[in-house]
Design brief:
The protein has 224 residues and is α/β, with parallel strands linked by helices. It has one domain: Rossmann fold (3-Layer(aba) Sandwich), CATH 3.40.50.720. Helices cover 47% and strands 11% of the residues. The protein has a six-stranded parallel beta sheet, sandwiched between helices. α3 runs parallel beside α4 and α4 packs parallel to α5. The chain starts with 11 loop residues before the first strand and ends with a helix. InterPro entries: NAD(P)-bd_dom_sf (IPR036291), SDR_fam (IPR002347).
Length: 224
Amino acid sequence: MTHDTHDQDQKIALVTGASRGLGSALAEALAKRGYHIIAVARTTGALEELDDRIRAAGGHPATLAPMDVIESPAMLQLTKAIAERWGGLDVWVHTAIHAAPLGPAGHVDGKDWTKSFAVNATATQNLVGLMEPLLRARNGTAIIPDDPRGGEKFFGAYGASKSAQISLAKSWQAEAERVGPRVLTPEPAPMPTATRGRFYPGEDRAALSPCADEAEKILADAGL
């Protein structure tokens, strides 16, 4: 994990799944609001490009953490480092996702099914436990965007695992209503992301909402 020196009173936002799409857009939007971004994704080059864009826009240099969210020891190490360095989190954005290929329910590849639940459900469950004390320490906000595909044709693996993720998030939301943190599950409009491109390869992407616009709307609705 690479970082620069920051004051303890700096606003801190962790974005898991920060390398592209909505996660990258939310990281940039939060950086413009004065947050120091801790960016997690598997691709180092994409994280460095995100940091370049944040710096070019006048934001604080980001902390880059090239890690896979399914690696529990790495996530534990990251959260310990955040606790020691900053004492907590103001915002956690979770957009890391595995988008399995579309196909009939009876023909879902076993490896795709397993990876979908490992990334979309199990990793989220692990991260909720790790992030909760960090967010409570700063009266923070968790943002886990929804993409309701459960029950749609050919979305068996993605729809089921994403539904599991959001079901968990909403249980956490209800449990945390009095004690914190605040948990939000916004549903952005369709965006021209790589994930959607795999689902709808022939779609007119010009008709979709830019990720930056959806990021701004999510943060505005959250009061951030």
